[in-house]
Amino acid sequence: MDFKRQGILGGTFDPIHLGHIHIAYEAICKLNLEKIIFMPSGNPPHKTDKKITSGKERYAIIKEAIKNQPYFEVSDYEINKNGMSYTYETLEYLNGKYKNVKWYFITGADCLAYLDKWKNVQRILDNCTFVVFKRSGFSNKDIEKYKSYIEQTYNKEIIYLDIPLIEISSTDIRDRIKNNKEYNYLLPEGIGKYIIENKFY
């Protein structure tokens, strides 16, 4: 049976920026994926103490940012879901909804350091191929250490995407908007204007 190869790129995306787009395109090329689905988080359990822009607004910004990108989609599953957003539930939902798809869950390498604290790790790894990209502050040696530990503990392969880093911070973008500093060069084309016109920040 032939499986479609599709990626999931999750995050708060508050807002989505060129760093996210860069990661998505690199994953498509290096993993030979047909599509990337951006999955803005609803109520992530690890960010309960942080103020996050509403899911509806973050979803709208992503949708606008990728409207001319044929390889990208955005899902509102997590932002419409009641309660906390858990990765294992998202993956099981996607596997139930879409048949004959091999999912690649793409996240930062820093997640490997605390993946053991995620809920139902085995169910996550059973429902996708887990892919990590490099994060600042994590050396290749650090990543390999965490990668080996997870692979041995759960008997699953982890893919490491060694791609160039584009250091952009959503927090910095929000601060720039608030303080009337230039930020358009950090965002997909037209998104700065879209954010201001809709008074999202």
UniProtKB/TrEMBL annotation:
Residues 8-176 form the Cytidyltransferase-like domain. GO terms for molecular function: ATP binding; nicotinate-nucleotide adenylyltransferase activity. The keyword Nucleotide-binding applies. Belongs to the NadD family. SUPFAM superfamilies: Nucleotidylyl transferase. It catalyses: nicotinate beta-D-ribonucleotide + ATP + H(+) = deamido-NAD(+) + diphosphate. The keyword S-adenosyl-L-methionine does not apply. The lineage of its organism: Bacteria, Bacillati, Bacillota, Clostridia, Eubacteriales. PANTHER family: NICOTINATE-NUCLEOTIDE ADENYLYLTRANSFERASE-RELATED, PHOSPHOPANTETHEINE ADENYLYLTRANSFERASE. Pfam families: CTP_transf_like. NCBIfam families: cyt_tran_rel (TIGR00125), nicotinate (nicotinamide) nucleotide adenylyltransferase (TIGR00482), PRK00071.1-3 (NF000840). It comes from the Bacteria. This is Probable nicotinate-nucleotide adenylyltransferase. It comes from Clostridium cellulovorans (strain ATCC 35296 / DSM 3052 / OCM 3 / 743B). Catalyzes the reversible adenylation of nicotinate mononucleotide (NaMN) to nicotinic acid adenine dinucleotide (NaAD). Pathway: Cofactor biosynthesis; NAD(+) biosynthesis; deamido-NAD(+) from nicotinate D-ribonucleotide: step 1/1. Keywords: ATP-binding, NAD, Nucleotide-binding, Nucleotidyltransferase, Pyridine nucleotide biosynthesis, Transferase. GO terms for biological process: NAD+ biosynthetic process. Coiled coil: none annotated. Its EC number is 2.7.7.18.
